[in-house]
Amino acid sequence: MTERPSGDELRTLMNAGSAALTFNAPMSQHRASDLIHTLASWNASDIVDFGCGRGSFATTIAAAIDSAHVVGIDNVAEFIHEADADSAATFDVADASTWSGPCDIAISIGSSHAFGGPVSMLDRFADLGARNAIVGDGFWMAEPDEWCVEIFGDMPAGLEAVQVGAQEQGWEVLDLDKSSIEEWDTFESGWRKGIRDIGTDSAGMLADEREAEYARYRGVLGFSWLCARRADEMTI
Q1: Would residue 170 count as lying in a domain?
Q2: Tell me, what's the pLDDT at 3?
């Protein structure tokens, strides 16, 4: 009987799942293009992507907005080493919660945990002097069961709670959206395929396990997309 992978094998398989994706989040190419259009409209000099992973989004931003200095930050050295060496972006192995440097725009996609949660994250962005932020993060689209809460933890219940949370931290919400089910399905299927392609029994087991879990949180776990500006930056 095949045992569930653990330790180094589990990390290898998980990395294979994320490596199979262009963006390690439920984000379509269309959404990425829209976000880059928004970034360009903010006329920033320094854009920092916290928790950038292998740097795909930072690389895409740098290619599209050549007037900005784009920095990708991640604490996993392996990911940073895999980032595109020919990219116009700069990559740094660092702890997102303690990194400091020029930052007009802060980006965090699925990385609020690195700061201790969304509240601490938005406070840190303000401390860095960021005047705009793009945040992709989890929230509950529907009432979660005990299993979902145990696996994913406490999260805002609905997009309105995401908006209120940002406003309470001194951010003005410019746009707020959520990943579609199609984006989720594409993300999850791509992640599982990356693992299955390893071809081992343990890889198949992990992919099957993820598929069963996704059936439980599909339509319940959401992913919000927040575009915000510091309230004191708003024109009155």
Answers
A1: yes
A2: 73
